[in-house]
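From the methods appendix. Each design record in this collection lists the tokenized structure first, followed by the designed amino acid sequence. Records were kept in a plain field format so they could be parsed without special tools. The example shown here is representative of the layout used throughout.

RECORD:
FOLD TOKENS (248 positions):
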């Protein structure tokens, strides 16, 4: 697999994509996803883990609302991984993550994930390279465990925005009353580490790629939502699920 260089990947939709036509197609996909999710829940043989990573303001919350929010809430759960608590810090770094792994029949979304422990921790030098390599191996083993022993299908998305788009979105949180609740002055400080974040993400893609990453151009929400909905649809469709019928 060729190394992923984020600077060589556009953050915008190719020009051949029409916004309105793509939004219509997304609506059609979401309608089909409603049926597929019902099948997933009823059959109870597969689990789906959706890992969403991205810089601040890349649109993770929006995807959860506008793509997964259209599905039956009984079969979708969301876990956001923030700064570890004192209890979590007393365990290995995957302890809190494994507890949130999806059960069969459910789509589990990680809004940020176990990858934070080899991303933000390295940017701020809380984790050295040797420790990061050990964690990468543990992550690969963890994901292999889920896929091989619990029929879990993992989709890993990196929401790829430009620094210019990020700054615009962060500034909107200052001026737009509907977005002010998201404002965190630390986000602007974190954005100053953009280059090192890109380097750490690329290292992550290179060493944790047994399950491939989807690099999602995310400057335009309509295109981002289309790509993620399409990937989920394709995954569920390939499972060839069947309703279990009457219980005997």
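DESIGN:
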């Amino acid at each position: 697999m060729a190394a992923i260089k984020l600077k060589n990947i556009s953050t915008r939709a190719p020009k051949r994509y029409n916004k309105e036509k793509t939004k219509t197609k997304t609506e059609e996909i979401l309608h089909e996803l409603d049926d597929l999710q019902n099948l997933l829940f009823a059959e109870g043989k597969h689990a789906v883990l959706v890992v969403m990573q991205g810089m601040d303001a890349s649109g993770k919350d929006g995807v959860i609302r506008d793509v997964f929010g259209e599905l039956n809430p009984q079969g979708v759960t969301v876990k956001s991984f923030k700064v570890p608590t004192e209890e979590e810090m007393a365990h290995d770094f995957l302890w809190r993550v494994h507890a949130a792994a999806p059960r069969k029949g459910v789509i589990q979304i990680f809004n940020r994930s176990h990858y934070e422990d080899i991303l933000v921790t390295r940017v701020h030098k809380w984790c050295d390279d040797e420790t990061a390599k050990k964690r990468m191996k543990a992550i690969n083993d963890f994901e292999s465990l889920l896929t091989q022993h619990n029929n879990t299908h993992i989709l890993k998305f990196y929401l790829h925005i430009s620094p210019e788009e990020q700054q615009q979105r962060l500034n909107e949180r200052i001026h737009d009353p509907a977005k002010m609740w998201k404002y965190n002055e630390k986000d602007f400080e974190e954005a100053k580490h953009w280059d090192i974040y890109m380097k750490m993400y690329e290292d992550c893609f290179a060493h944790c790629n047994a399950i491939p990453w989807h690099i999602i151009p995310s400057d335009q929400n309509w295109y981002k939502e289309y790509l993620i909905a399409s990937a989920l649809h394709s995954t569920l469709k390939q499972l060839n699920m069947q309703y279990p019928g009457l219980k005997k």
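APPENDIX NOTE: Residues 19-43 form the longest helix (25 residues).
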